[in-house]
Structure formats: C-alpha cells, structure tokens
Amino acid sequence: MxxxxxxxxxxxxxxxxxxxxxxxxxxVKDLERGILFTKLSKEIQLAVKLGGSDPGQNVxxxxxxxxxxxxxxxxxxxxxxxxxxxxxxxxxxxESITYEGYGPGGIAFLIETLTDNKNRxxxxxxxxxxxxGGSMSAVSWMFNKRGxxxxxxxxxxxxxxxMMDNAIEINGVEDIQELDDDSLxxxxxxxxxxxxxxxxxxxxxxxxxxxSSGYIPxxxxxxxxDDKDLMEKFxxxxxxxxxxxxxxxxxxxxx
Length: 255
Hints:
InterPro entries: Integrase-like_N, TACO1_YebC-like_2nd/3rd_dom, TACO1_YebC_N, Transcrip_reg_TACO1-like, Transcrip_reg_TACO1-like_dom3, YebC-like. The chain is an alpha+beta fold. The protein has 3 domains: 19-84, Arc Repressor Mutant, subunit A, CATH 1.10.10; 93-140 and 220-250, YebC, transcriptional regulation domain (Alpha-Beta Plaits); 141-215, Alpha-Beta Plaits. It has helices at residues 3-7, 33-51, 59-70, 75-86, 118-131, 160-168, 193-203, 228-243, and strands spanning 95-102, 108-115, 135-136, 143-152, 175-178, 184-188, 207-217, 247-252. The strands form 2 sheets. The protein has a 4-stranded antiparallel beta sheet with strand order 3-1-2-8. Strands 5-6-4-7 form a 4-stranded antiparallel beta sheet.
C-alpha cells in the first residue's frame, strides 16, 4: 500500500460533510428515542437475516449491536429484534433499499433505507423531494462507494499516533482520519471492511465503534448560503429525511 496516500487529504464521506445532517450528531439527543431505536432494530434484524445471530461470526451484527449499546438501547429491545429476525416471533420483511434523486439547488442525494414497506417509503420520499423542488432520479453515477471503520484504543493504552501507525499496515486502508472523540476512522474499499475489522480487534485489541459503507461524491456543488429560500428548503428536506424512521443514512454532494 502506498503510505503517501494515507497522508493525502481525501474528501470524507458525503454523509460526513457539513450539509449531511442539519442537526448535530444524529443520535439520542437529536432524534426521538423511539425513532432511533426503530432504526437500530431494523439494522439488527437485517444483519441477523444476512449473517446469523452470532456476532462473533457476523461482523455486521457486531457493529449493529455496538451502535445499539452506544445509544443505550434496552437489552429487551435488542433481544426482541434478534428473535424477530430468527422468526421466533412474527416479523415483517426488512429490505435494504437505496433511493436517489436531486434535492434543493440541484444537490444529488443517495438515501439508504431499511424498510418493511417499500411502497410507503418511496411514497414518503417522493413527497419530500417534490416539496423541496426536486425529484427522484438516478444520481449514483456521481458517487464512489467506500467503506468506513471507526475505532478507538479498546483495551490497550495506545496513543492515536500508535493506532494510526498500526492501521496503516492493514491491507485495504486508503485513508485514516482523526475524529473529535479520540477515535480514528479508516476509509477503505467496501469489501475490505470485514478484514479490517478482524485485524483491528484480534491483532491489535482495538474496539470498533462503527462500520458502514458510504458514498464519496466525484464532484461537489456549493450551496449559496445567502439564498434564504434555498437554505430553508434544504434544511426542511434534510430534517424530513433524518426524522423518517426508514432512513438510515443520507449522502449528498453539497459543499
């Protein structure tokens, strides 16, 4: 791997840019707990259906459980989500669907959802786009898909510099970014996420906080922040998406 590439400043996931969430961090403080827990429950159910109920053998489930724990999701909720996925109680079919479109100001959006009713979801999203003066349309060609792994020192006493030096040696790592909570984030090809998770947790004893896939725009559009009407539409559109219980991640190419 080209170590010089690690030191290059690369654009973070579009989901991390300043327009990715009008509110601050999307979490318990900013969304109703019920909506957040519904999102987490769906992710747990999908992870179990795709890879089984053993987090030791299912990396996606391990990441989902870590997110649930971080959000203080009750253990009963977590257990019930796993049981529903295993068919021990009645479960709706959860689907992972990504929707695309142009929002206010011609900004391109990719919206990742987990839904048990895709007709309801697409109807709601079409309504949001229409109210914002946009429309649903193919825009995925404007983004490159990448994986993301966020981790901290875990049970070690390693400094951020030491953690970064170790992470650089892992095959598939393209970029490493320091975050505000004394953790690091690795950017990598999506297929490398599981391998990197295993290396971080088994070889270095680090704690993986979050794993995900995201989209990096090939080009960006600068929003005119002096345009009050545009900014109001954009804010309302983003908040509608963030509040929808089926929406898991929102990516855009706004600068």
